[in-house]
Design brief:
It is a single chain. By secondary structure, the chain is α+β, with helices and mostly antiparallel strands. 32% of the residues lie in helices and 18% in strands. The protein is built from seven helices and eleven strands. It has a seven-stranded mixed sheet, with helices on one face. It has a two-stranded antiparallel ribbon with strand order 1-2. The chain has a two-stranded antiparallel ribbon with strand order 3-4. Strand 10 and strand 11 form a beta hairpin. The N terminus is likely disordered.
């Protein structure tokens, strides 16, 4: 792999840069975050495409709106690391490839906002989790290729082990394929023990992200015993654990 640094992101591409055409290099260098047309196009896609397909949509859009000569069959950017997923100050932005956002948090936009069902997920670790079980639930969206997500996992796992005896359920949801996720879980060992599920269609991820206009991962949601979302934000945020404790005491 050869690395190219572009601002706060690093794009990795297979082979020597000399093997890329000028059009491909221009594609890699294109700042999707600064183009409102791309952002509008992507935000209107429903359901939000799985991570493995985002680059496919980028190439089609790029050919139609930027460079008609660009070859959409090019393999440039086809691996997760090459897909132009920017990781900035604590978050990875898979959709608009923006500056990565910040590790922000927020209370739910309105009281009594019900969490979306988690039915249909494919679990690769642990037992299925329900937001209507009468227990406090932490729903977190992540990906193996996202450095801030990987950094957050040991912290999440510590909270899981600490709060599980009190009835708090955790689930980490990714839109990736099964093989790389299982491999990553194995590599993490005892520091990644909470349930993990696949949302390969991207539909559940899209529901949560669209309601709260979330474009970055990792992102966690705290669901209280009534099935209401009372907090959402970055899992490393200082307000995360207090929100769980608040939900337990309610």
């Amino acid at each position: 792999y050869q690395r190219r640094d572009m601002g706060d992101s690093t794009i990795e591409s297979k082979g020597a840069m000399e093997s890329l055409s000028k059009a491909e290099e221009a594609f890699l260098a294109f700042d999707f975050s600064a183009d409102a047309r791309w952002q509008t196009y992507f935000s209107n896609l429903y359901p939000t495409p799985p991570m493995k397909l985002v680059n496919k949509y980028k190439k089609k859009w790029y050919k139609s709106n930027v460079d008609p000569s660009f070859n959409v069959d090019s393999t440039v950017g086809d691996t997760p690391a090459e897909a132009g997923s920017k990781c900035g100050a604590g978050q990875c932005n898979p959709g608009t490839c923006g500056s990565g956002g910040s590790a922000s948090s927020a209370a739910a936009p309105s009281s009594g906002t019900s969490a979306f069902s988690l039915e249909g997920l494919e679990y690769v670790q642990g037992e299925p989790v329900s937001v209507t079980s009468g227990q406090v639930v932490v729903v977190e969206f992540w990906a193996t290729w996202c450095p801030p997500c990987r950094s957050s996992i040991p912290h999440l796992d510590q909270l899981y082990k600490k709060l599980k005896p009190h009835g708090v359920q955790f689930v980490g949801i990714t839109s990736e394929d099964e093989a790389p996720v299982k491999q990553f879980i194995k590599k993490m060992g005892d520091t990644f023990s909470y349930p993990v599920a696949l949302d390969t269609s991207g539909s559940i991820s899209a529901q949560y992200a669209e309601r709260y206009q979330v474009r970055g991962i990792p992102h966690a949601y705290v669901v209280d015993k009534r099935g209401q979302i009372i907090w959402h934000g970055h899992p490393m945020d200082g307000a995360f654990e207090p929100a769980i404790v608040q939900a337990l005491r309610a």
